[in-house]
Design a protein that fits this description.
Elements lengths: L4 E5 L6 H10 L3 E6 L5 H6 L3 E4 L5 H11 L3 E4 L16 H20 L4 E7 L11 H22 L4 E7 L1 E3 L4 H11 L5 E2 L8 E3 H10 L8 E5 L7 H12 L6 E2 L2 H6 L1 H6 L9 H7 L8 H12 L1
Parallel strand pairs: 1-2, 1-4, 2-3, 4-5, 5-6, 6-10, 7-9, 8-11
Bound molecules: NADP nicotinamide-adenine-dinucleotide phosphate.
Length: about 300
Amino acid sequence: MSTLRVFVAGGSGTIGIPLVRALVEAGHHVTALTRSADKQQSLRALGATPAVADALDASRLKDVVLAARPTHVIHQLTALPKDGPRRASDLAPTNRLRIDGTRNLLAAAIAAGATRFIGGSFAPIHGIRPDALAGVQAGVVAVQSLESQILEASRAGAIEGVVLRYGLFYGPDNPATKRMLALVRRRMLPVVRHDRSLLPCIHVDDAVSATMAALDRGSAGGVYDIVDDRALSMTELVRALATMAGAPAPRAVPAWLPRLVSPYLALMTSLRLPLSNAEARAALGWRPAFPTVQEGLAQTIARAA
Ligand SMILES: NC(=O)c1ccc[n+]([C@@H]2O[C@H](COP(=O)([O-])OP(=O)(O)OC[C@H]3O[C@@H](n4cnc5c(N)ncnc54)[C@H](OP(=O)(O)O)[C@@H]3O)[C@@H](O)[C@H]2O)c1
């Protein structure tokens, strides 16, 4: 592939950092967006050119995107609390980014003459039923807005839009995985009895390789599930984590208990969404290096040790 000019919005995030690293290693010229002037040095150390702007400030964002002259723009913006969302209201800033931030970034990318726009979406949200909590519905609407804005711009011929619906991220540098590992070691992460969940997951390294593949593969208007080979239940996930970390077996609690403590977390961990990566494999020529969570967790625990 020839050298591309890639603008990564969310370049300082969980997927953004390894993505920037991979893009630089592949020889591309990368501009990474952050709101914080303090992060410029670490982005330079990755080999990227930093750009400082708030994605909700359309005019400033357009200026920095135009200055970067990107051929490709990648949207990896979220604004979730550092210790993860616990209630639906925690999604509100991310919802704004998915609606208004997407609009601003798409407009800037098109104005800059970029040819391709890759949007990072969230697969699990598609498993939420219409009668779920109202606050969660706002999250669904925001993800739908992100996806439909990208696909509409692609249909209109303004830019090639590709949507990547990532499963739940996990991996050695993933804050959620680190948190789960700490809890499981203290036997503070229970499993629920009669768990019927099926959660699509993806190792962050595999989310990065799929995003790299989407730079020049996958059709304009394509929507791909970037998930590993087999969805697993929350119980399987927690038990695998405990076994591999040498932690005590997790306690089992009735399903009503997590619903009482955090209805949002209980909903997100009880989704049943057995997605397939067959289309992503075929269209992107991509395959996960960690096809199952068990394989990915083995690497995660080894790295943590
Ligand atoms: N985490 C998951 O399990 C998961 C699962 C599925 C999909 N995803 C997708 O993966 C992508 C990113 O997730 P992540 O876990 O990497 O997020 P993250 O670690 O929280 O990073 C968020 C990024 O967004 C930037 N950002 C936030 N608000 C901004 C604003 N107003 N203006 C400009 N930049 C802003 C942050 O930059 P600064 O703080 O430096 O400004 C940071 O680079 C999203 O596309 C999300 O939908 C995540």
